[in-house]
Amino acid sequence: MDHLDSLESKSIYIIREAYKQFHNIGLLWSIGKDSTTLLWLCRKAFYGKIPFPAVHIDTTYKFKEIYEYREKYAKEWGLDLIVGKNEAAVAGGMGPDKGTKLTCCTELKTNALKMTLKEHGLGAVLLGIRRDEHGIRAKERVFSPRNKDFKWDYKDQPAELWDKYKTEVGSEDHIRVHPILHWTERDIWDYIKRENIPIIDLYFAKDGKRYRSIGCHPCCNPIESNASTVDEIVEELRTTNTSERSGRAQDKESAYIMQKLRALGYM
Amino acid sequence: MEKEDLNIVFVGHIDHGKSTLIGRLFYDTKSLPQGKMEEIEALCEKTGQEVEFAYLMDHLQEEREQNITIDTAQTFFEDENKKYVIIDAPGHKEFLKNMITGASQAEAAVLIVDTNEGVKEQTKRHAYILHLLGISQVMAVLNKMDKVDWSEEKFSAVKAELSEFLGGMGITAEYYIPISAKKGDNVASHSENMEWYTGKNVLEALDSFKPTPAPVEQAMRFPIQDAYKIDGKRIFVGRVETGKIAPGDTVIVLPSKEKTKIKSIEVWQAQLQQAEAGQSIGITTEDALFIERGNLLVHEGQETPVTQEFRANIFWISKKPMQNGERLKIKCATEEAMCTVDVLKRMNSSSLDINADGVDVIEETEVAEAVIKVEKPLAIERFEETPGIGRFVLERDMDVVGSGIIIKTEA
Amino acid sequence: MIFVTKLLVIGVDGATWKVIKPNLDSLPVFKKLCGEGKSGTIVLPEGEAVISPAIWTTMFSGVPGSKHGHEKYVKDGKLQSRDDIPVEFCWDKIPDKIVALQVPFVIPPFNWNCDYMPPGFGASKDEAELRQDVEGITAKAKEILASSPECAIVCYNHLDRVQHFHWGEDEYVLEWYKLVDSAIGEFVDKAEKVIVISDHGFCGVGEARDKTLPDVAADGQRLKGDHHEEAIIITKGLDCEIKQPGDVYRAIMEMFG
């Protein structure tokens, strides 16, 4: 087994474990590269037919390409698609220009997810987060409980060893399962390349710019890049990873500050 | 060429210098954020303290507020040959469950001892945990040599004390290295202050450690995770724990001991000619047997014992003690069942001395030798034979409260 | 007395009349400033985010929040720095005349022509660290004013941190106002003209025009106070009036630009 094989096998094990433990599970699919990779792994785990819904939280401010991609592949891959929306907030005109961007995110993302989980009775969600994203993720468990306010008590987390996961929580709580926690951004792109996973083309450079992460169009800024294929992105990451060591290391300090800001309620 | 990853955990008594050593390794391998060192130097100067590498780790983490590492934080540093994933497990007794969570992911361990203070309570407890987790690549680092005038005599004394303790529980440290993490002696370069030491420095010793190879040459063990019905086929999925499995193999399903043959090995859109340890696969069988989660598939002639009683060492990590005879949930491989735990011996996990207070309760951080009585038959093995089958966790009220390793497959 | 420093701007993040006015007898420096100068209330306009990064940016660039768009210390998972904010600040335009200490439109707060790194990177809620920071900033401010720049800007963000978690604990909050009051007193008389201003006021969670923060912080601590749209302003010796945060920028540019 090579590196990608072993990442894949571990993720599939976790996905199957999550499904076995929680039949009321959903996959949170943002259409981004990480959650699409996770979706791909779910297809592998269940031989092409994912036995639980894929949940897309629609803020109504997503790139139009996201909607097109979502409809196309939901159909092609036979997904049980749930589109979650905070209808009341959308009807009330909530947007990044109304109030603050923070309230916008809280209403259209967090609260929309809360409502969707409740409405569809989902007790667990699969999420495509990675440990290398930023510092605090290093503390994440594979099976990570959240209370009804979505609070993550990172100071008092369950013990997790030998692939034995926290599989039971109180009725008000839910579990977030992180099957690709052990992957890096490089791994994701290497895997996308190897598996030929169709990825939304916002990631590929047009006119010298591309998106490194995608979300709502008013709040997403592209980066300068000429990488217009998966190969070129892999190459770009390889070279930036070595030449931008200090930049990356800076991220750790940022992560520390962000953690403190979070403890202040900012973010 | 892709660098190998090595997961490494740093353990030892609080204040014996874990964070300082990690900080020093970061610094000496130039894995530090730019300007970080200058900032720390300025900070230390302002507050009239000596430059302390531990600030580094602490600076990068929230733990600074409490001056202890709360959780298992993972960071990376690299040398020419390897990328090291550092799991800085908390030394504080309070956070034992986090320490175990971190250490359980490690392939190698660095055990740090303050040469001036010698072997302390947590040194021993952490060593015991390494033993419990089956981490065999261990180096002992005798820190703060600058405080004992670089004395070989002092080093030898602590080394003797430590190796006796480690030997007592079957751990062989591959290296004993005298260092000063603060000053950098024998961390990434050889110490001029200790000409008498000619062995490897810490970085060289780390470099000699190897990622754990997948146990492909052992007897095949395939714990069943789930059963799916896909296009009319019943597929039994799971991850191969050890050995290799192929279509045509005659296998025994444990605990039922029914026999069948592997018909196919299924992954998405393909069938495999063979699968080996570590792979997540699915299988179909020649006979329509009732196979379910928790069952263990093995090759004929290589069966594990099937029993409802076995003997184990249990490490209790919950604040709420265990009552002798308490009914708990056991999770072993993919099987789970209710069990009771009859304690035979109760020990302090740092001294391994028998607690004379009797065996009515087991408190946090204590170790018990116990007979586990399971309410249904389990296919098990001794931890030493197959770690993945011979270890388990105990749960109470939805939380992991203890972990254990099987030492005898009968009572 | 000849003042070499013509203008001193003291920014006090989150300071509100609700605490100062009833306690003027315990806050001698605020009391003296109010007596000597003009005091008033800034009501932040509707549509502008009542949130520190936005308002401090406006205050020293003159650009309204709706134009500069900088609202959060962290955006898209990335900690924002000066370079992420598309404005020219007053110190960009008159670089030699201004020294600025700890302006909290970014975290760690921004310095111009001076160096200072706060304990906890300016994002602390640890009481000891906050106290240490008040002392550190005050010492640095005295040092700055001793070197007599034409314009000095000094900001304290501690009342904001304290009020978020202790709003309603009147005595405790007042202790922190007293601390800041006496800190300011150590150097406020070193400049000819003085502006004391807050970016926003404070109120209980749920009482604000726009709720800006969650009920519970990431570490589980409950927030008790939220930003209020009424901020404080005290000016001493100033010719113009400060009605909105952006007027501070205009006052500085008028004097030195």
Describe the secondary structure blueprint for this structure:
The complex is a heterotrimer of chains A (about 270), B (about 400) and C (about 260).
Chain A lengths: L2 H19 L3 E4 L4 H13 L8 E4 L6 H13 L4 E4 L2 H5 L9 H19 L4 E3 L16 E4 L27 E4 L7 H11 L13 E2 L12 E2 L5 H14 L1 H19 L4
Helix pairs in contact in A: 1-2, 6-7
Chain B lengths: L3 E9 L5 H11 L7 H11 L7 H6 L13 E6 L3 E7 L7 H8 L4 E7 L6 H13 L3 E7 L8 H17 L4 E6 L23 H7 L12 E3 L2 E5 L2 E7 L4 E2 L4 E5 L3 E10 L2 E3 L2 E2 L3 E6 L10 E4 L6 E11 L5 E2 L3 E6 L2 E14 L12 E2 L3 E14 L11 E6 L2 E10 L3
Parallel strand pairs in B: 1-3, 1-4, 4-5, 5-6
Antiparallel strand pairs in B: 2-3, 7-16, 8-9, 9-15, 10-14, 11-12, 11-16, 12-13, 12-15, 17-22, 17-24, 18-21, 19-20, 19-23, 20-22, 23-24
Chain C lengths: L4 E8 L4 H4 L7 H9 L1 E6 L8 H10 L3 H4 L5 E2 L2 E2 L10 H4 L4 E6 L6 E3 L14 H20 L4 E6 L1 H9 L3 H16 L5 E7 L3 E4 L20 E4 L1 E7 L9 H11 L1
Parallel strand pairs in C: 1-7, 1-8, 5-7
Antiparallel strand pairs in C: 2-11, 3-4, 5-6, 8-11, 9-10
Helix pairs in contact in C: 3-9, 6-8, 7-8
Write a structural description.
The complex is a heterotrimer of chains A (267), B (411) and C (257). With 267 residues, chain A is of the alpha/beta class. In chain A, 42% of the residues lie in helices and 10% in strands. Chain A has a 6-stranded mixed β-sheet. The longest helix of chain A has 19 residues, at 3-21. The radius of gyration of chain B is 24 Å and the shape is globular. Chain B starts with a strand and ends with a strand. Chain C has 257 residues and is an alpha/beta fold. Helix content of chain C is 34%, strand content 21%. Chain C has helices at 17-20, 28-36, 52-61, 65-68, 90-93, 127-146, 158-166, 170-185, 246-256, and strands at 5-12, 38-43, 74-75, 78-79, 98-103, 110-112, 151-156, 191-197, 201-204, 225-228, 230-236. Chain C has a 7-stranded mixed β-sheet, sandwiched between helices. Chains in contact: A-B, A-C, B-C. Chains A and B meet through helix 1, helix 2 and helix 8 of A and strand 2, helix 4, strand 8, strand 9 and strand 23 of B.
